[in-house]
Structures are given as C-alpha cells and as structure tokens.
C-alpha cells in the first residue's frame, strides 16, 4: 500500500499553495503519521513513506475517521486544511471489519470532503458504495493487493478532477426537480449563496453567465433563491419536464471574493401513457387489463386489442381517457392471448404496450363419489364428473396390509371413465379420485370402504 501511495502522489507539486498531503494509519490506536504542512516537496514525502512501519492490532477505522475530522481537517490549526479548499480523503482498506463507518463518513462528506475508497479484500460493497462520493464508478475501486498499480492512474485522475473542480453538480434529476451540490466555499465565513436558474431558450448556447447576469439565455426569465452559507446543496422544484435549464451559483461574502459557477441540465420527460400494463383477476373466460399513468389532459381514448396466440381473430375495445382498466370477457379457457393497449394522444401520436396473458383452465370438481362393497375385499367405485377439459382421473387407495401414506396404490383412468372396481383392499381402505387437467391435478373426493363379515 505504501508503494502504491508513493506512485500515486509522485506527480503532484507539493507546497502551501499547491497540493498538501497528510497520512493517518489505522490500528487499535490510529496514528497520525504526518499532517498537511509537514512535507513541502516530493523528496521529503517519498522518504517519509519508506520509513512508515505498520501498526498492529484491530482495524479501528471509526476512531481514525474521528481523528481525521478533528485534527487533520479542522481549519485554523497548524496542520489543518482550510475549509474553502478542495479536500480529498482516500481510504485504503483490506476490507476486514472496518466497523460502523457510515456515520463518520457522512459527517466528512457534509463538510465537503470528497471520499474515495480502494479495497484490497472482500469488502461490503453496499456499505462502500454508500460512503464514497459520487460518481461511484470513479471513486470506488476493488483490486488485488499485488495489482494495485493498475488503478493508480484512474485514482490519480479522480483526485485531480476533484481538486481542480469549481463547478456545480446536478444530481437526482426528475421530471420536475433536481438537486444542486457545490463545494462549501463559505463554510466558516459570513455570507450566503445566491442561486439563479431559468429555462434555456430554443437555439441558445446553454451556457451560464457571470455575476449579476441571468442564467437563462432568454436574458430575463429566471428564479432567484438564497441559501445559507452553512449549506452546500439545494433542491430545485416546480420545473417543467423535458426542459433544459441553466443555473448559476453566486457565493456572496464580504471576506473573500469567489467566482460565479454555472451549469446546465435537462429534466426527464414524462412517461407517456401507457408506461405499464398489468393483468389481474385472471379467470377461465375473463381477465382484467389495467394500465397507467392516466393522462386525461393529453389522451383522448384508450384502444385495447386482443387475440389468441399464435394467431386468432382480433377483438377490440375502446374506453374513455379517464378509465385505467377494463374486463375482457368471453375468452377461451386455458388459452394464451396477446393484449395490446394503445393510448391515442391529442397530439395525434399513439403509444402502445403489449402483454401476454393466459386464462385459467376449466377445473370442474367431482360431483359425487360412491363406494359399494363387493364381497369381503373388493369395492365398486363410481363418481360423477364433467369430461370437458379433463385429461383423465387419478385413483389412489390403501394396499392390503398397510394404510400408511407411502403404502398406497394408484391408477390412471381416461376422461370417459366414471367407474372401476378395486380388489384386495384392507379393512377400512381409503379410496380417492382426483380429476387431471392439462397443467394441474384438481381437487378430489375420498371415501372409506367398510367391509362386513
């Protein structure tokens, strides 16, 4: 790991107005190897890395993170890093029992620290994904301890990107909202953030303006929000779907002058109906088809087509724009249908979605089962049932010397059979008859044969 760090940090220019490096080692009692102001050149840093000796004991990552927050990242100390500057924490871990680091990591992120993770062991991916600063694909690496060199450039590029970044980050964009995130320029200072955002006019460049200008390329239509100096994010709401917005962040402080940051983003389009089609209440001759979302302002009607597969007569139903389901009747039992729901939009556009649905097989129960003893060990079995949809009947009965469940005999009979005779039965033999369908055995009837001497 130390060799990896040496190669990772070698290209950086060190110094008070350049990159500064601090190192914490994790152990039972974490140790600050050196702070930010210790080494102002690569020679000193590289020599320090070769002289570090590993700590023994437990992996007390939680206390190490607390130390990082309290001493290394605290502004105003001789070894601290001023909050207004970009800060990056790279956590190298073998993944063994790091403890409950989610809370401490979240506190560091809230202070504006970018968190990157390199794991050389079998780590909890879900936990690491939660603690790193997005984007996860650039800031979370899993690599074998002997192959760490393959990620050196990618990790270094990610650090450089964070250090040089002075821009707004737009996240969690939906059809009508978006979250803005920025480096906390004003932490520890007096002042506030002014956020201006507006639609980018058709044919506009989409770029942002400088301080005092409208973010909208239209020149005048924009909204203005004020955010506390202690915060570094805001949620923009009430946006239009599928619309490009330009947004500017203006840090206002009497102590330090900051540049205005600008960016653009596009809200997601509204999913046109039907975006989902579901099937419920599936029976032998009917099914209910439902769809959504309902959009009565843009849809004039819904058109439902259905036919048997692989090919069959096409049937259709038209329902109003305020209806989100319909019951298809008079279907064939045990049959596969293709159902297509089409929304006819007021604009003339049509959108369709299709699903397959299977109706249930006809499963009539047996009407009656009667046993008539014949002699001392035989019985005449008679039943009433419907042959429609049947593949046959399944009989089971007790063997001569046992009534155990695994000592039973069975017999298949064709669907036109309504009686049979069983012989060599034990006293109080249990006889059961069940109907058989194409995909399932139906509910059967059972009776006990009682023989008299």
UniProtKB/TrEMBL annotation:
CDD domains, alphabetized: FN3
Alphabetical keyword list: Basement membrane, Disulfide bond, Extracellular matrix, Glycoprotein, Phosphoprotein, Repeat, Secreted, Signal
Primary localization class, coarse: secreted
Compositional bias per record (Gly residues), positions renumbered to this chain: 201-212
Region ranges (Disordered): 200-220
PROSITE patterns: FN3 (PS50853), VWFA (PS50234)
Record-annotated VWFA domain positions: 1-159
Domain Fibronectin type-III stretches: 164-270, 273-365
Localization of this protein: Secreted, Extracellular space, Extracellular matrix, Basement membrane
One GO term describing the cellular component: basement membrane
Gene3D superfamilies per record: Immunoglobulins, von Willebrand factor, type A domain
Top-level taxon in the UniProt lineage: Eukaryota
Function: Promotes matrix assembly. Involved in the organization of skeletal muscles and in the formation of neuromuscular junctions.
Listed name of the protein: von Willebrand factor A domain-containing protein 1
């Amino acid at each position: 790991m130390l060799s990896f760090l040496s190669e990772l940090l070698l290209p950086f220019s060190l110094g008070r107005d350049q990159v500064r490096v601090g190192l914490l080692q994790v152990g039972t009692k974490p140790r600050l190897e050196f702070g930010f102001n210790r080494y102002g050149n690569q020679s000193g840093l590289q020599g320090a890395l070769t002289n570090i000796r590993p700590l023994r004991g437990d992996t007390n990552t939680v206390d190490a993170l607390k130390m990082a927050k309290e001493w290394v990242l605290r502004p105003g100390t001789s070894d601290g890093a001023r909050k207004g500057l970009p800060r990056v924490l790279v956590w190298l871990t073998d993944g063994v029992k790091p403890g409950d680091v989610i809370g401490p990591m979240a506190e560091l992120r809230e202070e504006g620290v970018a968190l990157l993770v390199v794991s050389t062991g079998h780590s909890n991916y879900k936990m690491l994904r939660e603690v790193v600063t997005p984007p996860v694909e650039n800031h979370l690496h899993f690599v074998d301890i002997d192959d760490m060199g393959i990620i050196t450039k990618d990790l270094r590029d990610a650090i450089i990107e964070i250090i040089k970044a002075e821009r707004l980050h737009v996240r969690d964009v939906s059809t009508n909202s978006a979250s803005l995130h920025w480096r906390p320029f004003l932490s520890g200072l007096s002042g506030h953030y002014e956020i201006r955002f507006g639609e980018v006019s058709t044919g506009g460049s989409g770029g942002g303006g400088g301080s005092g200008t409208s973010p909208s390329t239209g020149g005048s239509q924009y909204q203005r929000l004020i955010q506390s100096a202690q915060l570094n994010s805001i949620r923009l709401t009430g946006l239009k779907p599928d619309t490009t917005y330009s947004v500017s962040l203006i840090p206002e402080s009497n102590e330090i002058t900051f540049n205005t940051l600008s960016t653009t983003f596009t809200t997601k389009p509204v999913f046109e109906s039907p975006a989902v089609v579901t099937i419920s209440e599936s029976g032998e001759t009917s099914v209910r088809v439902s769809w959504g979302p309902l959009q009565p302002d843009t849809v004039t009607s819904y058109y439902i087509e259905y036919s048997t597969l692989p090919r069959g007569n096409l049937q259709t139903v038209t329902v109003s724009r305020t209806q989100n389901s319909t019951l298809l009747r008079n279907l064939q039992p045990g049959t596969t249908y293709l159902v297509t729901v089409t929304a006819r939009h007021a604009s003339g556009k049509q959108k369709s979605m299709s699903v397959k649905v299977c109706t249930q097989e006809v499963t009539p129960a047996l009407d009656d089962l009667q046993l008539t003893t014949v002699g001392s060990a035989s019985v005449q079995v008679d039943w009433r049932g419907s042959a429609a949809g049947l593949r046959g009947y399944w009989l089971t009965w007790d063997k001569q010397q046992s009534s155990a469940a695994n000592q039973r005999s069975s017999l298949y009979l064709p669907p036109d059979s309504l009686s049979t005779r069983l012989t060599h039965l034990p006293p109080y033999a249990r006889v059961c008859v069940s109907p058989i369908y194409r995909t399932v055995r139906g509910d059967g009837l059972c009776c006990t044969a009682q023989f008299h001497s």
